[in-house]
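Structure ticket #2291
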Amino acid sequence: MAQTVNLDDFDRKIIAVLRDDGRISVTDLAQRIGLSKTPCQVRLRRLIESGVIRGFTALIDPAKLGLDHVAFAEVKLSDTREAALREFNEAVQRIPEVEECHMLASRFDYLLKVRTSDIRRYRVVLGEKISALPHVASTSTFVAMETVKERG
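Resolution: structure written out below.
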């Protein structure tokens, strides 16, 4: 389990600003949170080194890439012992269409967020990749009709 990092109000402000604009300069960031540049830079470095900030990335519009079909797949495993879970976890990492994978405490074991170009492509990904993952006993799919809120 990840160790919690103690954050103060300035740290939380840094995180909030960076969530909205990861390309902001340190000078502008310092001004926005009410610190001078050097202490802001030290705090930012500490947040990165402690793993609170895991990295910086570009937010991509999936629709512009022709990837606007989103489905959620419930996955039930035939074996939920630690070795089976580890095998599933490692294998699901290799499916690029799976954007998110969450283990749940539910009537099923995992919930996958899968992004493809259309329902036909999703059917191929489900049939040839997801269903072929280790220990998959069954799946059930929910297709998103509209994305109301999504954080990239």
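Closing remark: The chain has a mean pLDDT of 96.
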